[in-house]
Design goal:
The chain is mainly alpha-helical and about 325 residues long. It has 2 domains: about 80 residues; about 220 residues, MetI-like fold (Orthogonal Bundle), CATH 1.10.3720. The chain is about 75% helix and about 0% strand. It has 14 helices and no strands. Helix 1 crosses helix 4 and helix 8 packs across helix 10. It is globular.
Amino acid sequence: MRKYIIKRIAISVVLLFFVSMIIYIIMRSIPTSYVETQARMLSQMPGAKSYADWLAQLNTTYGMDKGILEGFMQWASNAIHGDFGDSWQFNVPVVEKFQSVIWDSFKLGSIAFILQIFIAIPLGILAARKQYSRSDYTITVLALLGISLPAFFFATILKLIFSAWLGWLPLYGKVGRYYELLSGFDQFFDIAIHFILPILTLTIVGVGGLMRYTRTNMLEVLNSDYIRTARAKGLSEKRVVNYHAFRNTLIPIVTILGGTLPGLFAGALITETLFQIPGIGYTGYLAMVSGDIPFTMFYMVFMAFLTLLGTLIADILYAVVDPRVRVS
């Protein structure tokens, strides 16, 4: 297993290098250019230099006068030493801006992820155990609604009911108007209230797919020969389902859960925008559309790193949930 992990890490480093190169090439090739936008804006000021002069000066300042390959190698060399530069759009160090917005997205994503697991897996198992029953049809319909309808629909409905009609929860924002005047616990409670609707939105949107996936795999396992044998031996239905069937259902579910690691840090652009929460999803979107290469590079490479890490963790967990899985 140790040799396998070392080999996978070495492959991941190579993949991360080429993924970084592809991201950099795309960012340099997109029509939106931060330098061109700034040069155009500065050239329109009274008594300013021409657009061409500003463009040449800013290209030199931001290192855009170099070729794509040369520019990428310079970025990679600085990144290896932990220097990711300053964000052009936000005018602060990339890492500092990233740290200031990532934790709100992580809190939303992690809480929603935990709720999805505790809701989707039991309901998926229940639907499989009672196939073609009223419970199965109800759970299936709810899962399809969660899969089919977009996040902005659920967000709008929740805001309409709980904020506009009932007035129980805030309509938007991370904190209330009088947040600075509150004590420590009251500040925590204020943030928690503002996070309820975004977390509900993310949970509803994500629970359907996991629920259907659990149901499908549980049905396949319950129809296996060894499950029939366990029942024929007189084992209780609870032990058959919870011990024998569920453990084998975990194998494909681990694949899904391992791939969710990047999602905990990726942010939710639509949800964060609708509820006006300054998370990494909305911040990353602003950086991309403005052509902010330093911040976009750090954000996208960080997501690629988490994707590779999540895949490695999922492969290792295979041996944990199923002793038959071994690396030769």
